[in-house]
Amino acid sequence: MADAINFPGTVEWSGENPGISLKETPDGPFVTLASFFRVVLSPHGPGHALVLLQSPQDANAGGNICLHDNEKLARYLVSDFVSHFGAWKGLPGLQGLSYRPLDSVAASGDPASDYSETVKAREFTVTLEWRGLGKPFCFALPPDKSATGKHWMPSLFIGCKDAAVTLNGKTLPGKPVPREMAGHTLTTAMLAFSETWIRA
Q1: In the chain, which ranges are E strands?
Q2: What are the residue ranges spanned by the domains of the chain?
Q3: pTM of the model
């Protein structure tokens, strides 16, 4: 029997974290950013959070929101994880997030082809859509290669060709652009399932 692969450290959270990061031109800034969390285990319990920046460079923009059903978890995810993600790091828009309780979360579609998450919170209905999904692959980033620089990150990723974020029926600007991850060519929109962050 093969030896088990053990990751030393403390499991800080586990769940799903699909995201969509959009640009208007490949060499331009990100204009729309969305990171969705479905967490099954964390120091603050389970829950959902959608972090959406419509104005990434503006700390005072009203469209930068975090919709959640567990505010302690949402703030923890933003401060300890999202703020370290490559496309999000250093963005003024994260400083002015408005935290709003959500009413419902619903996934639909099939991760083998097209998939979506819809989050509703009073006056907001946000839908994230991933289209043209590719072949799933599993990998584990060591701490020095992870976004935080402090965590192992075993995960399952599924890349996609196209993605969109809609708010109250209006499609937000931008398109995903190419990126590399663990030797795979993806775009800046992907599904991330079975994701676990383990502090080394």
Answers
A1: 10-16, 19-23, 30-41, 47-53, 65-68, 98-101, 104-110, 114-121, 124-133, 137-141, 151-167, 170-171, 178-181, 184-187, 189-193, 195-199
A2: 10-199
A3: 0.96
